[in-house]
């Protein structure tokens, strides 16, 4: 009963946030034309403008991402993926990163997929490469990042290729570190998972004794897409709203003092990425609002760290994996991402 109430509560929150977005979108012109309201609360008009611009730019990529993700979820089996991976543990790291680049799954959707792969015999460290590579290294995220940072006000190539290059290299490094610590230890999976811990996540297996019909699989794809859209959409709207508040009300002098220091701004933006828990298909649109106030280094930190580790996928990791593995994974990702960004921008760019 409690689980059902929690799921209903999350769905109601998602619907409420979507209704809020639609309401603000419908009345935005009236708000902007109302001189008296503008004089009273111009800051809130600015919040509304920034909020709508982020959401409207991100929604097409969200829709594309959830449909492609759902097609893979339904039509591509885990066994088929494993055929492309070498048996050698170290050699498997590189093709695992390449294969992760063609799986447009967000950081929350990839967690149960990786768990299923490990249960079917995939080495733990290869699953880790999927876990951190797939949310960033795919054409949808590439396109959304390019679109969000295009124009004369952004250093598009630096941000875009730093994000993709770091994600590819760091996924291999993180996988190698976790291999050195845990080897191929699949015992890091939890065996006491309950439906309450899984919440709204799909965990059913698509391998049945009878192969489902094409119509049934297409219907299941639509169900996955709708479910993922509402799950991602509420985080996007919440993140866009917080970002618009942040941009409007935070003291500009404080923002400039934090944002122009390479180390402090990178730490702040990585923490911001963790707390906002944005979908990787949409996070670039939020990050682009900070360009000019934060350094390119810190923005890349936001774009690389958030899809690898955030608040919502932390809960999922603890639900699927043992605490020792999750804590080790979190420390490794945080240290490796921060160090790599400092090295890249401090000594190379």
From TrEMBL:
A single GO cellular-component term on record: plasma membrane
From what superkingdom does this record's organism come?
Answer: Bacteria
Membrane-crossing segments per the record: 12-31, 51-76, 88-114, 126-149, 161-182, 229-250, 262-278, 284-305, 325-348
Is the Cytoplasm keyword given for this protein? no
Kindly state which keywords UniProt assigns to this record, in alphabetical order: Cell membrane, Membrane, Transmembrane, Transmembrane helix
UniProt topology in membrane? Multi-pass membrane protein
Task: Enumerate the subcellular locations listed in this protein's record, separating them with semicolons.
Answer: Cell membrane
Family indicated by similarity: Belongs to the UPF0718 family.
| Protein name (record) | Permease
């Amino acid at each position: 009963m409690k689980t059902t109430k929690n799921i209903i509560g999350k769905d109601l929150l998602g619907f409420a946030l979507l209704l809020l977005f639609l309401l603000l979108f419908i009345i935005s012109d009236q708000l902007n034309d109302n001189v008296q309201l503008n004089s009273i609360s111009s800051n809130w008009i600015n919040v509304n403008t920034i909020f709508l611009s982020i959401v409207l730019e991100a929604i097409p990529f969200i829709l594309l991402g959830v449909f492609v993700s759902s097609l893979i979820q339904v039509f591509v089996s885990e066994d088929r993926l494993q055929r492309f991976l070498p048996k050698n543990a170290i050699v498997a790291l590189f093709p695992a990163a390449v294969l992760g680049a063609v799986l447009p799954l967000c950081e929350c959707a990839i967690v149960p997929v990786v768990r299923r792969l490990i249960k079917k015999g995939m080495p733990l460290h290869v699953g880790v490469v999927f876990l951190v590579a797939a949310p960033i290294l795919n054409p949808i995220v590439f396109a959304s990042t390019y679109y969000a940072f295009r124009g004369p006000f952004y250093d598009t190539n630096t941000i875009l290729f730093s994000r993709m290059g770091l994600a590819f290299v760091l996924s291999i490094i993180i996988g190698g570190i976790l291999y050195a610590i845990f080897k191929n230890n699949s015992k890091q999976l939890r065996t006491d998972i309950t439906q309450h811990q899984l919440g709204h996540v799909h965990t059913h297996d698509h391998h049945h004794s009878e192969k489902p019909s094409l119509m049934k699989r297409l219907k299941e794809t639509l169900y996955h897409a709708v479910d993922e859209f509402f799950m991602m959409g509420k985080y996007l709207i919440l993140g866009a709203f917080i970002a618009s508040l942040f941009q409007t009300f935070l003291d500009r002098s404080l923002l400039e003092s934090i944002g122009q220091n390479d180390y402090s701004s990178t730490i702040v933006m990585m923490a911001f990425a963790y707390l906002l828990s944005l979908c990787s298909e949409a996070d670039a649109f939020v990050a682009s609002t900070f360009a000019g106030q934060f350094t390119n280094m810190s923005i890349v930190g936001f774009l690389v760290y958030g899809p690898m580790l955030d608040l919502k996928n932390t809960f999922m990791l603890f639900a699927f994996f043992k605490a020792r593995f999750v804590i080790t994974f979190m420390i490794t990702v945080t240290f490796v991402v921060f160090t790599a960004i400092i090295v890249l921008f401090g000594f190379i760019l």
